[in-house]
Amino acid sequence: MSKSTQALASREQGQFPISKGTSYAIESLVNMHPDREKIKPEPLSQIDVLLVNIRTLYRNMLGGLKAAVKEQVQAVDIPDFLFQEMQQVRAAVDKIGHGRVQVFFYLCTYPDLKKHFPKANLIEPTTLKQKAAKAMEDQVIAAMVASPQLYGYPKIFEYTVEGGKLENERVALLTHLPLDLVNRYQFKEMYLLESNTGAFKKPSEFNSKFKVKPEGTHLPFSAFTLQIFGDGGKMFMPMASEITNSVAELARKNRWTPLTTAEKIRYNLDNSQGNKFSGFLKALLRE
Questions:
Q1: Where in the sequence is the domain holding 76, given as residue range(s)?
Q2: Cβ atoms 31, 42 nearer than 8 A
Q3: How far apart are CA 216 and CA 251, in angstroms?
Q4: Which end of the chain is more exposed for a tag (fewer CB within 10 A), N or C?
Q5: How far apart are CA 277 and CA 70, in angstroms?
Q6: pLDDT category, 155, cuts 50, 70, 90?
Q7: CATH number at residue 135
Q8: What is the pLDDT of residues 173-207, one digit of tens each?
Q9: Judgement on whether residues 150 and 71 belong to the same structural domain of the protein
Q10: Domain end: 169, 201, 233, which one?
Q11: Which pairing describes strands 121-122 and 236-237: parallel, antiparallel, or unpaired?
Q12: Which of 201, 234, 252 is the last residue in one of the domains?
């Protein structure tokens, strides 16, 4: 084995032969997570499908490496290990779910984030280390997409996860990217399954992913609010405090909830007196 493959093989694992962060998520589905209280009903009983973000598997794999060996890893060696991880995830879910829960893997390709989210404050790598890390991830993902005969046929989306043929299913997403969660109404039910913590969250809890969390608000979770309040350092930085404060005040005044629709937000903006950001926010809502 090369130093690179030795490093990847040395990653920390959980109760399943999977990178620790991912294993903890799978373990929590049946109350096996070592640091979480048992919940009823078991999360696994509440879903029919587990959608797994391959970028999240990648992150968890590298996150399970000790700093001393992480720099030895070469991008060319990662796809094989990731595919093995995918097979182990499916085997683990088949085992604990007795074959009832389907597992699908997916990728969002993000062909042009600046064009798709022109008003957003996108997070971009700035340091040499950050740029190198992004380049490696992009290289690995491109290699896997280009060779489906070796690495399988994941569901491919551009920017957001779509329901498609899964629209009548109860689905949990194993992902670290909050943008994946904005299309919850394209599924019968949608939940978030978090790596490491093993938290199993329903849509009313998705707003915990905002970077800015205004007091006294119960914000709906959408691409609109995600761009305004940020996503904790993943893709979007919060907008200027004047804008976040303006939207927070609008939410408090009009008693927004996690179920508040885009139509209600638009109505509130149309009827907001003296809100100098109204035009900007309505344009953002249309995107």
A1: 3-201
A2: yes
A3: 9
A4: N
A5: 45
A6: very high
A7: 3.40.50
A8: 999 999 999 999 999 999 999 999 999 999 999 99
A9: yes
A10: 201
A11: antiparallel
A12: 201
The answer to whether the beta carbons of residues 175 and 157 sit under 8 Å apart is no
Whether residues 8 and 65 fall in one domain: yes
The phi-psi region of residue 120 (left if phi > 0; otherwise alpha if psi is between -120 and 50; otherwise beta) is beta
Pairing of strands 236-237, 170-174: unpaired
Q: How far, in Å, CA of 141 to CA of 105, rounded?
A: 13
User: Looking at the structure, do residues 241 and 280 belong to the same domain, yes or no?
Assistant: yes
Domain count, the chain: 2
What is the average pLDDT value for the chain, to the nearest integer? 96
User: Tell me, what's the pLDDT at 128?
Assistant: 96
What is the C-alpha separation between 83 and 80, in angstroms, rounded? 5
> How confident is the model over 64-87, as a mean pLDDT?
95
* Count of CB atoms situated within 10 Å of the CB of 124: 12
Residue keyed to tokens 């600046």: 114
Please state the pTM of the whole predicted model. Answer: 0.95
